What does this fold into?
Amino acid sequence: MDEQVILDFTREAVYTVIITASPLLLLALAVGLTVSIFQTITSIQEQTLAFVPKILAVFVGIIIFGPFIGNTILNFFVNTMQNIDKFIN
It folds into this structure.
């Protein structure tokens, strides 16, 4: 197996992980920041208050971005299976 094939596969795998995880991570970041600003303004110091909105936002994000994430992972899998002969040698 050629080193370039391994590097290309690894680069594509890391890119797929970044593309599929980033919408949910950015959504959780935005909700967490909003809740933190709200806690600062209202002087509420409850640490567990931020978890419930973040969890709900991620669930909604999974519903919204689920087809995109699924298609991205499926395309990566199909591409990997089509090029499996390069990995075996």
